[in-house]
Design goal:
Length: 214
């Protein structure tokens, strides 16, 4: 088996049955979309596929908001599975750049491979899949679906973004509706447009029903 196949198998075993929206199928969708974008953008396919497979391996949300846990774990695994230190570094850097860290926090990418993986992960947070994952995640943390008393907050630092209690509907205004403007690649932007419009009509319908207008 190749390095990618062996790492793919390990990640699949680790994420199967996960219930917060960070399950194996999320990883697999990100991998597929990332490879599709990589092809259009001329990015290195091996680096992109490994980074997509490992991007949530030790996500900060499940490690006391520690942003260095994921990249460190990915580097360690690539070396353990026989990859070169250069490959481990390239993948670790991409993973350190992938996460959203709040509305006012820039998340620049340092390579086309990183651009593609960040886009693919963000595309999976919007659209119909995004709606489903967001409510799954909100349920897993006991967050209210919606609370009209809670105003959305556009966070300027990661600490505040990670710590603030919010509602799942607010999460759309604090992150999901902002992602379209932050997609890096042209091919990613084309996919984001339709997904964005779908989310917007979901929210319009939600508010209309909430107020008994429809
Ligand atoms: P990214 O990989 O872009 O950093 P995350 O790992 O933060 O995204 O989020 C993964 C999924 O969990 C997404 O669908 C995201 O919208 C959802 N999520 C994150 N925080 C919240 C929250 N406070 N409420 C609801 N969903 C959330
Ligand atoms: Ni992800």
């Amino acid at each position: 088996m190749t390095l990618i196949e062996r790492i793919g198998e390990m990640v699949k075993n680790a994420f199967e049955g996960e219930g917060t929206g960070h399950d194996w199928f999320h990883i697999d969708r990100v991998r597929k979309v990332a490879l599709k974008l990589a092809e259009s953008e001329g990015a290195n396919m091996e680096v992109v596929e490994l980074a997509a497979l490992l991007h949530d391996i030790a996500d900060h949300k499940f490690h006391d908001n520690d942003l260095s846990a994921g990249p460190a774990k990915a580097r360690e695994l690539i070396l353990e599975y026989g990859g070169s230190p250069e490959l481990a570094d390239r993948v670790g850097t991409i993973i350190s750049e992938t996460s959203y860290k709040g509305a006012g926090v820039e998340t620049p990418v340092s390579s086309i491979e990183s651009a593609v993986v960040q886009d693919a992960d963000r595309l999976d947070a919007i659209g119909a899949i995004g709606v489903a994952r967001t409510f799954a995640y909100g349920g897993s943390t006991n967050q209210p679906i919606y609370d009209p008393e809670l105003q959305p907050v556009l966070h300027n630092d990661f600490e505040a973004y990670a710590k603030t209690r919010t509602s799942t509907i607010n999460h759309f205004y604090e992150k999901l509706l902002l992602l379209k403007e932050r997609i890096n690649t042209e091919s990613g932007k084309r996919m984001a447009d339709e997904r964005h419009d779908f989310m917007q009509s979901f929210l319009d319908q939600f508010h209309a029903e909430w107020e008994g207008r429809r």
